[in-house]
Give the backbone structure.
Amino acid sequence: MAFRLPGIAAVLLLGCCLGASAQETDAPTTQARPCVEVTVNGERTPSYDCLTEKLRPPASARAPDAVQPGLASEAIVQRPSNELGLFNRAATGHRMGNTFGTSVYPQRPPPVAPSSPLIPRQ
């Protein structure tokens, strides 16, 4: 097997160039400041203000009087219950028909009186 040195060298050089260009394109991200936990008498207390800020959606550039965009969970609350797969009294009543809300009577035969094999039946 004969190796082609110029071809391998070209592949290695290309790989190095791609790795260097990938490092250059990475934009420096701004690190969010860490939340500080305070320990008093052995009990750790996190900064709830800081944690709340981290959980908020990122603020976009909009007018101060503009309406706040709603969260996806708020839109789900406005959907009808039958779209969410929840109980819907009207739909269940329609499915059950006129038996919805009535009690069920068991379909059992009358109890048989015990009989003795020694006494003939009449």
Notes: The radius of gyration is 38 Å.
